[in-house]
Amino acid sequence: MGHQLVTISPAGQGSFSVPFNPNNYSLSKANQIAEAAIPGLNAPILQYVHGNTRTLDMELFFDTYEEGTPVTDDTDSIYKLLLIDPSTHAPPICQVSWGTFIFQAVLDHVNGKFTLFLSDGTPVRATLTVTFKEYMDVDQLVRTQPTQSADHRKLRVVKSGDRLDNIADEEYGDPENWRAIAAANHLDDPADFEPGDVLIIPALT
């Protein structure tokens, strides 16, 4: 990373850099997987539900002892990223950059620990543990991760209230494709299934 500092650029606000670079950062990503227990099977069926947001975690160190000024003058710039922007009714979208690493996100959590004070109680040293959640707008998500399941076969566990048309809408983005599901499961009656049944969701040809 060289001597470049971690820089945070909130949308519609001025950019600022932290005074000291962190020793490391962690980037996490996970999927939401549902388990559906089917009577007669010795293990549940695993079903992909959705991908979870990537999260960025790091510790930011602040020290104003030599200057003799309150360290909160610096740390408040981080805490303010949790405040709601009146124009968007949401916290500001930030670009967090460190060298070639760039992460567009919203600040999700801050945990501050103040460890050094002047004789009058003024805090002059602090460590903030911050968590940013990646932000991607809806259009970008749809372009990069289309929701249709037209290219692979999968299984789906029927939930209460499911109908073939709404299942087709969720799986393919088009309720008119319910006939493909009915044919793959040999359903003469499109309502001939119950919660807990396992349906084949075929690839569209």
| Contiguous helical run count | 4
Average of the residue pLDDT scores: 85
Strand content range: 35-45%
> How many whole angstroms does the radius of gyration measure?
25 Å
Written overview of the protein:
The chain has 205 residues and is of the alpha+beta class. It is 15% helix and 36% strand. The chain has 4 helices and 11 strands, in the order ββββββαβββαβααβ. It has helices at residues 72-79, 138-144, 164-172, 178-184, and strands spanning 7-10, 16-17, 25-28, 31-36, 45-51, 55-63, 94-98, 101-117, 123-134, 154-157, 198-201. The protein is elongated, with a radius of gyration of 25 Å.
Briefly characterize the structure:
The protein is 15% helix and 36% strand. With 205 residues, it is an alpha+beta fold.
Task: Based on the model shown, name its key terms.
15% helix, elongated, 11 strands, 205 residues, alpha+beta, Elongation Factor Tu (Ef-tu), domain 3, 7-stranded antiparallel sheet, two-stranded antiparallel sheet, Membrane-bound Lytic Murein Transglycosylase D, Chain A, 4 helices, 36% strand
Task: Give the helices and strands, then pairings.
Layout lengths: L6 E4 L5 E2 L7 E4 L2 E6 L8 E7 L3 E9 L8 H8 L14 E5 L2 E17 L5 E12 L3 H7 L9 E4 L6 H9 L5 H7 L13 E4 L4
Antiparallel strand pairs: 1-2, 1-7, 3-6, 4-5, 6-9, 7-8, 8-9, 10-11
Helix pairs in contact: 3-4
